[in-house]
Specification:
123 residues; mainly alpha; Arc Repressor Mutant, subunit A; 2 domains; two-stranded antiparallel sheet; 5 helices
Length: 123
């Protein structure tokens, strides 16, 4: 697996790793069940601290892109349904919290739309 990290980039190295693996998993370039290199091996290959790679793997796991199986390693998960399920759960949590805070539906929706515009500036 060829990954590249630009140390001069504004994006932190762990995020560069996370984004590359996530995109390749989504595109199918990294198929479901593929075993990723160990944290130490990938860190060595990229010339980074093991903690940097470990953080990228933790975030990928939290996003449902990979699954960690202890000694069985870190594997690419079936992401399609997982990503949608996690996004729906986050949206539900937001809606419930906005309601508890007493926001009107229109205000809660406006806040969500504003956040999405920040997250997706190109669209």
């Amino acid at each position: 697996m060829q990954l590249s990290v630009d140390p001069a980039a504004a994006t932190p190295p762990y995020e560069q790793i996370r984004a590359q693996i996530a995109e390749r998993a989504r595109s199918g370039e990294l198929p479901t069940g593929l075993r990723l290199p160990t944290v130490r091996a990938l860190a060595e290959e990229l010339g980074l601290a093991a903690g940097t790679v470990a953080r990228a793997y933790r975030e990928l796991e939290a996003d449902g892109v990979v699954e960690t199986h202890g000694r069985g390693g870190t594997l690419i998960a079936a992401t399609g349904d997982t990503a949608h399920r996690l996004a729906a759960a986050a949206a539900t949590e937001y809606a419930e919290r906005a309601k508890r805070l007493g926001l009107a539906r229109e205000d809660a929706l406006a806040a969500a739309v504003a956040a999405l515009r920040l997250a997706y500036p190109e669209g």
